[in-house]
Amino acid sequence: MKAGRIEGRYGAVFLVMFLVYILSVQGSHEFQITDDPKNQKSPAIYGDIVIWQDSRNGNWDIYGCNLLTGEEFQVTTDPSDQFLPQIYENVIVWEDRRNGCSDIYGYNLMTREEFQITENPYNQTDPAIYGDIVVWSDRRTPEDDIYGCDLTTKEEFPITTDHGTQWYPAIYENIVVWDGWINKNEGVYGYNLLTEEQFEIATRGDMHGHAAIHGNIVIWAEIGEVRWGIFGLNLLTEEEFSIPSTEAFSWFPAIYGDIVVWDDEKVNNTDIYGYNLSTGQMFHVMTGGFQQFPAIFKDIIVWDDDRNGNLDIYGCSLETVEYYQLEDDGDDGGFCSGTIFVVCIFLVLIYSSREHNSPILQ
After folding, report:
1. CA 344 to CA 23: how far, in whole Å?
2. For the residues 175-184, what does the mean pLDDT come to?
3. Angle, CA 32 vertex, CA 27 and CA 37 arms, to 5°
């Protein structure tokens, strides 16, 4: 009898451990990319390479990590600040303060060579890259304009010099988009590098921010008296659409294919949300704390995360997120984890009652 009780106790312990393992695996769809105690922030991703700005050396440097090998590497070593990196294929670009103003620099991962892209004595900031074209916001005139450079020919060229301020450019193939004030109209604008034509995307008079583009879809954040949230435009059909609202302050959107991700800023925390344009379903990457500045490539999302008391870079795979319709409560991961936890306790109670002839659940 005593031996049976001991075996029953060991069996119950094993069952609890097994079910807790299943629960932890179910909820472990995220992975940590950086673990240095200093701050790592503003990630970008292309293929298996994630890059970010890193303060571990007392200034901001650019670091990276190969997700396949887990190997971390340092890109810049200059004692000045380098930040806001972007990447396309084997080329990384960033904003660099080594010359006393902000310039745009680059680095080739294949040749391991660093190179300077801009030399104008005024500030060049917020770079973006696609193919051989780098674009940025440029202060060489009294107001910010958008400029670009062909890395193959080394030719620099203006994209917009309209009266007003233009900033935060993004580029996909031959289309450049940005936020700006043009003729006292705040909005999102675009430019076709082939036809050399500028066009309006959204000019409602509200505050627009951080336009992004992939394929034929342009997205942006908008805050105003009439509406706020994440909005988009299909450049082929000229159809504008909105991402279903979570009734929070939404900012810093990013897009790849049919997936849009963004910051969802509440009073005490900032979470990462996503939306599938094809299925109309949302997903919630992480709850609690501050997660911000998401970037996405194919099925991998990366972001800043403060759960360890400093800013680290985390990531997750779209294959592991749980989608839901907005009319649901939206507590995707927590709901499923909580359900499994209740089932675990229920099964343990049944097991224990049977082993010890307890009246519980009989």
Report:
1. 9
2. 87
3. 130
Q: Both tokens of residue 226?
A: 């009439």
- Per residue in 334-356, pLDDT (tens digit) is 333 333 333 334 444 444 444 44
Cα distances (angstroms) measured from residue 361 to each of 5, 7, 351, 356: 19, 21, 10, 12
Three-state SS annotation for the chain = CHHHHHHHHHHHHHHHHHHHHHHHHHHCCEEECCCCCCCEEEEEEECCEEEEEECCCCCCEEEEEECCCCCEEECCCCCCCEEEEEEECCEEEEEECCCCCCEEEEEECCCCEEEECCCCCCCEEEEEEECCEEEEEECCCCCCEEEEEECCCCEEEEEECCCCCEEEEEEECCEEEEEEEECCEEEEEEEECCCCEEEEEECCCCEEEEEEEECCEEEEEEECCCCEEEEEEECCCCEEEECCCCCCEEEEEEEECCEEEEEEECCCCEEEEEEECCCCEEEEEECCCEEEEEEEECCEEEEEECCCCCCEEEEEEHHHCCEECCCCCCCHHHHHHHHHHHHHHHHHHHHHHHHCCCCCCC
pLDDT tens, 105-161? 999 999 999 999 999 999 999 999 999 999 999 999 888 999 999 999 999 999 998
- Overall pTM > 0.85: no
Q: Which amino acid is at 27?
A: G
